[in-house]
């Protein structure tokens, strides 16, 4: 069963999400200084929830405090990205195996039909690519039956997305095909096939980044 919906968000939670969204979307880039008063004014909130949001992001390691007291967006690079992908492979392979047989068939079919339809497109925007990627990986995490594992997956996927590494433009079609293989295995309730399909998908992503970053083929 999927986890129940979260309760209505507080002002502090909405503020945190708004700042995090700005970081993820690169409206606030790596190394940029975050000014508490300016951000509070932009979001039309008081400085109290803004301070709470910034402190939370500092505690999560997404922001960093400089020796002069300034708060900046922490920069994650290629090394961190490759490490995050390795961790994701371990966690999400297991999550896929656990999710096999737990996801309602109608939900699997709904996601599968959307992925199948976009294979006819010639290109996706980065936001569309992330959206489809999120749909499949979140579906697995939400139905793995392990809240701690789901939270760890969400965290490491977020950190991977924050890495200041250019996205691989020609991977989207292969990624959707790999996602379909994952969904097919989940639809058969085949835990080992689901694990293998997820591991293969993430290994392919990591291998593509290794090649793009110049770690292979030299």
Automatic annotation (TrEMBL):
PROSITE patterns (alphabetical): HTH_GNTR (PS50949)
Alphabetized GO MF terms: DNA binding; DNA-binding transcription factor activity
InterPro entries to which the protein is assigned, alphabetical: GntR_C, TF_FadR/GntR_C, Tscrpt_reg_HTH_GntR, WH-like_DNA-bd_sf, WH_DNA-bd_sf
Any Pfam family hit: FCD
SMART domains named among the record's database cross-references: FCD, HTH_GNTR
Key words of the record: DNA-binding, Transcription, Transcription regulation
Signal peptide location: none
Superkingdom per UniProt: Bacteria
Positions of the HTH gntR-type domain: 9-76
Annotated PANTHER family: GLUCONATE OPERON TRANSCRIPTIONAL REPRESSOR (PTHR43537:SF24), TRANSCRIPTIONAL REGULATOR, GNTR FAMILY (PTHR43537)
Identification of the protein by name: GntR family transcriptional regulator
Source species: Bordetella genomosp. 2
